[in-house]
């Protein structure tokens, strides 16, 4: 597997930016930016509480990160909470969507 730790403390950030770009391209191609935004906004509070808790109890430790915390969690985790649902919606809409976004969906 490719070792991307050469980015040092920016490794996690670079990873999120790469996959976030993939998600954005898929969402744009599938014309699903609004669907993704609504989904991300709906999931974000749950993901934030979950993330804050798991970090506080030591479920995981993020070593290759910038060290910048926003609202008690790493900056990269905030990006992760947008990238993952964005990628899921982007893949789903690319496979199953018809390319038209209904205005009633947002």
UniProtKB/TrEMBL annotation:
It holds the Pfam family Lycopene_cyc. The chain crosses the membrane at residues 6-27. Its main location: membrane. Residues 10-94 form the Lycopene cyclase domain. Keywords: Carotenoid biosynthesis, Isomerase, Membrane, Transmembrane, Transmembrane helix. Coiled coil: none annotated. GO terms for biological process: carotenoid biosynthetic process. GO terms for cellular component: membrane. The keyword Transmembrane helix applies. It is found in: Membrane. InterPro entries: Lycopene_cyclase_dom. It comes from the Archaea. GO terms for molecular function: intramolecular lyase activity; lycopene beta cyclase activity. It is a multi-pass membrane protein. This is Lycopene cyclase domain-containing protein. It comes from Natrinema hispanicum.
